Amino acid sequence: MKVLILAEKPSVAREIARVMGCREKQKSYMEGPGYIVTWALGHLVGLAEPEDYDHKFATWALEDLPILPERMKLKVLRETGGQFKAVQHLMKRQDVGELIIATDAAREGELLARWIMTMAQWKKPFRRLWISSQTDKAIKEGFASLKPGREFDRLYESARCRAEADWMVGLNVTRALTTKFGAPLSAGRVQTPTLGMIMDREREIMNFRSQEFDTLAADFGSFQAQWRANSGDGRIFEKDRGAELAKRLEGQKGTLTKVQKSEKSEPHPLAYDLTELQRDANRKFGFSAKQTSSLLQRLYEQHKLVTYPRTDSRYLTADMTGTLKERLESVAVGPYAPLARPLLRKPLNITKRIVDDSKVSDHHAIIPTEQTVLLNQLSAEERKLYDLIVRRFISLFYPPARYDAVSVTVTVEGETFTAKGTTVRDAGWREVYGGDLSADEDEESESGGGEAAGRGVTLPELRQGDTVTIRRCMLRGGRTQPPGRYSEASLLTQMEKHGLGTPATRADMIEKLVSSDTIERQGNVLHPTGKGKQLIELVSPQLRTPDLTARWEAELERIARGQGKPEAFLQGIRGMAKELVAEVKNSGAEYKPHNVSSSHCPQCGTRLLEKKSKRGKLLVCPADDCGYTRAGEKRLSNRRCPQCHKKMELKEGKAGLYVQCLGCGITEAVNKDSKHINKREQQKLVQQYSKSESLGTSLGDLLKAAMEGKQEGK
Question: Which terminus of the chain has a smaller tally of CB atoms within 10 A, N or C?
Answer without folding.
Answer: C
